[in-house]
């Protein structure tokens, strides 16, 4: 989903792009992620050490480890703000709006329209697609996003079992991610949100009460 951070910068003694002395200063998580994605795309995720990341970001390895603990935390740093944008869109969706429309709109709104973030997203998507270790983490990384969407589906259609709501949310996440991956692989032309919107228009949730008789 959108690869941008809407959270306040993390307080530390250093910042990406150059070391600083004294307190307080900030870590620019967006800049760290961008530098890491570029480095990983050239050098490979598995072959990049914390010292390599420190050299690329200008933030000491000790500080990076204190804030991220594992390299994969940097790779999935954009999921939390994407989840926040998803939640915000769902919270203002009219109750009268068709469920599928509300879901599609919220997912599309969770995609960044910022050109800078889209450039980072292209490297990120290629990284995930080309790194089995990271690809295997997708379901866990997106758990909060999936839970948010599943809870919304459950509220809108109370008769849907929780397991079904979660399965539907998981399918939406997989479809959106597939659209983004295809967008990146085909040259990252245009807005990735449009690619996601086009993909999700093939999907529809029809409650039993609204389904046509056979």
From TrEMBL:
A matching Pfam family: TetR_C_14
Every HTH tetR-type domain range: 26-86
Signal peptide limits: none
Biased composition, class Low complexity, residue ranges: 1-15
Domain of life the protein comes from: Bacteria
DNA-binding region range list: 49-68
TM regions (residue ranges): none
Name listed for the protein in its UniProt record: Transcriptional regulator, TetR family
Chain residue ranges for the region called Disordered: 1-24
Keywords: DNA-binding, Transcription, Transcription regulation
SUPFAM superfamilies named among the record's database cross-references: Homeodomain-like
InterPro entries referenced in this protein's UniProt entry, alphabetically: Homeodomain-like_sf (IPR009057), HTH-type_TetR-like_transc_reg (IPR050109), HTH_TetR (IPR001647), MftR_C (IPR041347)
